[in-house]
Amino acid sequence: xxxxxxxxxxxxxxxxxxxxxxxxxxxxxxxxxxxxxxxxxxxxxxxxxxxxxxxxxxxxxxxxxxxxxxxxxxxxxxxxxxxxxxxxxxxxxxxxxxxxxxxxxxxxxxxxxxxxxxxxxxxxxxxxxxxxxxxxxxxxxxxxxxxxxxxxxxxxxxxxxxxxxxxxxxxxxxxxxxxxxxxxxxxxxxxxxxxxxxxxxxxxxxxxxxxxxxxxxxxxxxxxxxxxxxxxxxxxxxxxxxxxxxxxxxxxxxxxxxxxxxxxxxxxxxxxxxxxxxxxxxxxxxxxx
Length: 289
Prior knowledge:
3-stranded mixed β-sheet, elongated, alpha/beta, 24% strand, 289 residues, single chain, 9 helices, 8 strands
């Protein structure tokens, strides 16, 4: 053919002729009895260490797997290829098939690990307790805040975190003054943690004797009913001529199997107040701080 004619006429050198045949796999290194008859090439970015290409002969092209593996899988896969390359000539046995199974297992595990992380992000996962306490302590530093509860962190991807919290304040304080303090807290948390936090204010009447009386009655009763595992917050009352409306959130463990109606009925049956009461109870679970 044309290449042989060019070779015979001297227009094509012998080196270029042999190299072209090897590149097109018309001639293999084994046919030429080249030693070693196996080899591999690994190309990496010297700045980042990222594996750019990894290929072995005989065997498979690892470039097809590079995009599906993380850095750890790349490292293990590259090590497996190099190990097979070095040991195959010594053992006179091709290890590519076994290394292929090992690398396939690594890829499968990486896919499972990636899927688990994605599912956790989609379905929700428990927030970092350390961050919850950090946010709570920042809010408690505000001079108008008495206590903090229901601190929740919502993650919408890397560096996209939002939080909500409830802060108990004195109900007799100026709303403008309270808003000013809370706004400062939200900005300070944003600067320190990068989290956008929205704080809900729960006003309470600290010096109201009737509120204190009812709160003490319900607090003692709830503690006894829940065997020291129940607690209440957001407690307030609204007195009327013939009865008193009582509002509070009842926090019960996740192991509690009774319904909201059953728990409300249980509290109503055991409460002993100076006069008629109408209960408005929200059942909650211990979330956050």
